[in-house]
Amino acid sequence: MAKQRMLQFVTVGKEMPEKRPAPLRAQDFHEIYREFAAEKAAEQAGRCSQCGVPYCQSHCPLHNNIPDWLRLTAEGRLKEAYELSQATNTFPEICGRICPQDRLCEGNCVIEQSGHGTVTIGSVEKYLTDLAWENGWVKPVVPAMERTDSVGIIGAGPGGLAAATELRRRGVQVTVYDRYDRAGGLMTYGIPGFKLEKPVVMQRIEQLQESGVQFILNCTVGQDISFDAIRGQHDAVLIATGVYKARDISAPGVGAKGVVKALDYLTASNRKSFGDDVPEYDRGELNASGKRVVVIGGGDTAMDCVRTAIRQGAVSVKCLYRRDKANMPGSQREVQNAEEEGVDFVWLTAPKGFTGGDVVDGVMVQRMRLGAPDASGRQSPELIEGADYIEPADLVVQALGFEPEEIPVLWGVPELAVTRWGTIKADFRSHATSMPGVYAVGDIVRGASLVVWAIRDGREAAEAMLAYLAQPVTVAAE
């Protein structure tokens, strides 16, 4: 009788890939989790209960066919498992690393809910795709037939690259415009290497170039080229710029030297990992070495900043967040990793201002408490009078999230409709904007969100654009 490969969760416990010891991993920017061995990946995949209604799949924005590729992994049919995983996910090796699985697929796993510990879906996904790259299973996209249709994509982040992949698969000529000198968006310059090593991103960019996607880098729309010029050169346009405008603190002393923005700080660190010349880092302005660091914020960007500061050799790293740990928006897995590495979380605190004059030397901190729940059920923080104190700091990183830039103004297209939040208004299915032949996806539509949602948007928009390109051209009667 053949061995039962699945439903092993009763006898086999949940096991993540081995995590490098905190003192060791805090000294470099390499990824902290080791790879599964083939036997361990099969064992953990075999814990899947093969649900009739798989909540892991329904809570995945891409609706990945998770139970089936877990079963194939457990059976040792690894190439088939990879092919099934990438059928719905353009970048599974990236999602396997940076998706907040604890809030999505793994957090909704049936055996997790029943107390047996979730299937480690993200780790198996990462294992499969890394194996696929090693064995040459990942090939450049080769369309069955080339088309003359041309699409311009503004933004080389996950949404734009996902759309580019699907459009090239159908033979469309694709040009991607991006303001940075490397493609990848926040995957390249915003996410640290200990979560997503840069060769993982660069190999995808190279694959797209080999597939015929043209990249025009160091190109800022509205300055180096007009939006109208891009529209004139292509049959359709996709806006996938992301949101890069940092939310600022309105407090005394915010302009002092040493109070910096999260994205500037993370970009400088990531550029150093590429071997770039980064004067602001070398001068110490965007370098935590030997400093008392305070990071303000509680999302995943704040977690990236505190863990980067530890690796740069900060004397101390403290994270101020105005709610408690249970109400923190960032991944609980990331919070745990940060605590293991020596980050001190100061819950229920908010900045009131900064001391030191021209050069910051401290943060004026207000203590908070959680008050009555709001309409969504979330408790609002309230100030505790008379409980202020000063937290010494040589470097303060603001990680309060991002807002959209005023694209209609910057690009000179007032007819491009936006929401009251400044995001581009687009149809939630087709991703079409108010301008004919112009589509928008990702954070510039959703607000700051997840890579996996941007990938979904990009794939959906590609299908809608293909339908648009297939429409007959009407010629006005003379």
Automatic annotation (TrEMBL):
Pfam families: Fer4_20 (PF14691), Pyr_redox_2 (PF07992). It comes from the Bacteria. Residues 25-136 form the Dihydroprymidine dehydrogenase domain. SUPFAM superfamilies: alpha-helical ferredoxin, Nucleotide-binding domain. GO terms for molecular function: 4 iron, 4 sulfur cluster binding; metal ion binding; oxidoreductase activity. Keywords: 4Fe-4S, Iron, Iron-sulfur, Metal-binding, Oxidoreductase. Residues 151-458 form the FAD/NAD(P)-binding domain. Transmembrane segments: none annotated. This is Dihydropyrimidine dehydrogenase.
